[in-house]
Design goal:
Distance between the termini: 68 Å
Structural class: mainly alpha
Keywords: Glycosyltransferase, Transferase
InterPro entries: Nict_dMeBzImd_PRibTrfase, Nict_dMeBzImd_PRibTrfase_sf
Largest sheet: 3 strands, parallel
Radius of gyration: 19 Å
CATH superfamily: Nicotinate-nucleotide-dimethylbenzimidazole phosphoribosyltransferase (CobT), large domain
CATH topology: Rossmann fold
Pfam families: DBI_PRT (PF02277)
Number of strands: 5
Protein name: Nicotinate-nucleotide-dimethylbenzimidazole phosphoribosyltransferase
GO molecular function, one term: nicotinate-nucleotide-dimethylbenzimidazole phosphoribosyltransferase activity
Strand order of the largest sheet: 1-2-3
Oligomer: single chain
Order of helices and strands: HEHHHHHEHEEHEHH
CATH class: Alpha Beta
Length: 208
Amino acid sequence: MSRDEAKAAIEVGYVQAKDMIQKGINCLILGEMGIGNTTSSSAIVSFLGDEEVDAVVGMGTGISSEQLQHKGNIIKQAIEKRNPNSEDPIDVLSKIGGLEIAGMAGAMIAAAENRTPILVDGFICTTAVLVAKELAPHVVDYIILAHKSSEPGHAIATSLLKKKPLIDLHLRLGEGTGAAIAYPIVQSATLMLKEMATFTSAGVSTKT
């Protein structure tokens, strides 16, 4: 991506999320669909987290050990040759990121600005949180990690965010599947806080 393309992708996500929030959603659920985006996500997590690429890169949709080694080598070459600026998240996005990561980061920023909780799917979405956090640190206050991905880089990304996923079903899918599964848990927690009776309102005696 060029720098302008990265900015435009962030803006697209921002505008779409803001429009959805204005139409009444009370939770932004993010997912992605794509091929090869565990590669860009691994590159970003390795770079921003100052982690060895080999510790981050995983099997993605299912590749051989030889392909895994090649994937790691490509990521190392990309980081070395493109030399992104760790102090400039737009530069990181444009050089080793992807359009979907930029779009989700923009959507997260819009949700945080509007105090709307963000239910985050797996590895790629969590990588987008790392980028959004660099652009707007308060985003982290509004995210809920839905599930633990089987990708090794996801554990590193969640550790960087100091967040724990709600569920661990050994999922490797994206497309928002883990977030959709976790959403009823978030609903239940909200309803419990809002509607569950207290001892006083339920007339429960506190005497032994």
